[in-house]
Amino acid sequence: MPPFALTGSVALVPAEGAKQEKKALGIFLQPLVAGSEGLSQATTDSNGNFRINSVYPGKYKIVAVSPGPPYFLNSVRMGNRELLGQYVDLVSGTLPLEIKFESEGGDVRGMVEDCGSATVVLAPQDSALQEPQFVQTVRCGDQGRFQIANVRPGDYYAFAFDQWGGAAELLSGLDQSLVNKAIRVRVERGTFGNVVLRITSRNNE
């Protein structure tokens, strides 16, 4: 089947009272079958619109590059359908995509017993969101206290690792044995949650 053009728009929703921002952002189509027809991409214009040309029909995941703090990717919609983190069939005549970054999430704070130089990590429980951009990290402060601000609302696993090799390494090894060592945290918009963590040693994995 011949290729087609996929269109859409990206909205950056500022915090209440903050100035509306406009940034050029990258949008990618990640094929389900690696390497099939290459990686289609485009950049938003000054109005937040984009057009990806020469898209071959197939199953893709829509990947939007984050503009950075305080924004987080909140939704990728096609009509009334939420596509965030999912592979979806794209064909000629597909509805325009609507991508939204928001900037008002929830906070997670607490303390780590005998923290030292450990890294506090929040990883989504939803497997569709287990990608590096949704993993939040911070180092402990005085007396092992920490705070992670403006987290995307949802359910997370909280850890404190003595060694941190990065989000991709964590997600590739996020099996049930590691999940059993996590503290489960619910993050809601405009609120904060308190957690107490103990060190999880990566040497024992």
Give, in order, the helices and strands: EEEEEEEEEEEEEEHHEE
Q: What summary fits the major beta sheet?
A: 5 strands, mixed
Report Rg: 19 Å
Count of β-strands: 16
The portion of residues assigned to helices is under 10%
The general outline is globular
Which class do the helix and strand fractions yield? mainly beta
- Give the quaternary arrangement of the chains: single chain
Provide the low-confidence segments as ranges.
none
Percentage of residues in DSSP E strands: over 45%
Number of helical stretches of at least 4 residues: 2
Q: What does the average pLDDT come to?
A: 91
Strand order of the largest sheet: 4-1-9-6-7
End-to-end separation in angstroms reads: 47 Å
Labels describing this entry:
5-stranded mixed beta sheet; 4-stranded antiparallel beta sheet; 46% strand; mainly beta; 205 residues; 2 helices; 16 strands
Characterise the protein shown here:
The chain is mainly beta. Helix content is 5%, strand content 46%. The protein has 2 helices and 16 strands. The strands form 4 sheets. Strands 4-1-9-6-7 form a 5-stranded mixed β-sheet, with no helix packed on it. Strand 6 (72-78) and strand 7 form a beta hairpin. The longest helix is centred in the last third of the chain and has 6 residues, at 167-172. The radius of gyration is 19 Å and the shape is globular. 25% of the residues are buried. The mean pLDDT is 91.
